[in-house]
Design goal:
Elements (H helix, E strand, L loop, with lengths): L2 E6 L11 H4 L4 H14 L3 E6 L3 H14 L3 E5 L8 H10 L3 E5 L21 E4 L4 H17 L2
Parallel strand pairs: 1-2, 1-3, 3-4, 4-5
Helix pairs in contact: 2-5, 3-4
Bound molecules: 1,3,4-trihydroxy-5-OXO-cyclohexanecarboxylic acid.
The site of 1,3,4-trihydroxy-5-OXO-cyclohexanecarboxylic acid has 10 residues, from loops.
């Protein structure tokens, strides 16, 4: 059974209450529940993880490598714009991933326009609210169905 991991960075535990004009009103638990159901219906295993700590995210990516994860959906949150360590972890494991952002990072402050992940991501989805996770899951399911040996 294909494995897809969803990894979320700092402050995304506050989704639903945090700056709803940027991030919408759905909680992360609610988004994750819907993703798990969709993945299960497609015969895939989906695990979600959130941390506010950079080292825990790095360790989770390394764990994905050991667990034979097929695809990662990643919202690095503020670490998008700062974390060489998390980028290096993704390069190290070599698992294809889609970078997602609820807000359109190109329509906000200039410091959000640079991502340490976009050039090594399979794709980037930004600015559609919680729907970005569902679109990324559809793409990940398509990839694992078509790319698995
Ligand atoms: C975010 C955008 C980042 O710039 C910000 O730091 C976040 C969330 C998004 O999902 O829109 O925390 O990744």
């Amino acid at each position: 059974m294909a494995k897809i991991w969803v990894i979320n960075g700092p402050n995304l535990n506050l989704l639903g209450e945090r700056e709803p004009q940027h991030y919408g009103r759905r909680s992360l638990a609610d988004i994750a529940r819907a993703l798990r159901a969709k993945a299960a219906a497609a015969g895939c295993e989906l695990e979600d993880f959130q941390s506010n700590a950079e080292h825990e995210l790095v360790e989770r990516v390394q764990a994905a490598g050991r667990a034979g994860v097929d695809f990662i959906i990643l919202n690095p949150a503020a670490f998008t714009h700062t974390s060489v360590a998390l980028r290096d972890a993704l390069s190290a494991v070599g698992i294809p991933f889609i970078e997602v952002h609820l807000s359109n990072i190109h329509a906000r402050e200039s410091f959000r326009r640079h991502s340490y992940f976009s050039d090594i991501a399979r794709g980037v989805i930004s600015g559609l609210g919680p729907q970005v996770y569902e679109l990324a899951l559809a793409a990940a399911l398509h990839a694992v169905e078509n790319e698995q040996a």
